[in-house]
Specification:
single chain, about 150 residues, mainly beta, Immunoglobulin-like, three-stranded antiparallel beta sheet, 2 helices, about 30% strand, elongated
Amino acid sequence: MNAFDFAPLFRTAIGFDRLARMVDAAQQPDVSYPPYNIEKTGDDSYRLTMAVAGFGPDDIELIAKDNTLVVAGRVKAEATKAEVLYRGIAGRAFERKFVLADHVVVDGADLQNGLLHVALKRVVPESLKPRRIAIGGATPTLANDSQPTAVAA
């Protein structure tokens, strides 16, 4: 696997360390457990669905921090009444990390029929939204003058 050297970028750029972390995370081996879907449900809304059979609400932890969503599952050990001859349902612990774009927040989570649904929404602050600026047709006046002064020719 090829490694990227970001040293030349860091010599002249400030604040791009997050980009380097994202590239490093993308190069990590793909873990296929548990399987998941990412759906776009609207212009600014998404849904992450994970198959978490055997996990209850108390066994799953969701943490959103620094543009990263971490979904972790830990099953508490139960006393087994019978000997398991074949285990096809994986109940092992897991941790999946998802990088969230700027201004994407977790809107809620729900666990139904072995599927964990996490609602995500892009919430752009008012200060970052484009705003229309009116163009005035009058002569601009200075703040400390009440009347514009005429210039003698």
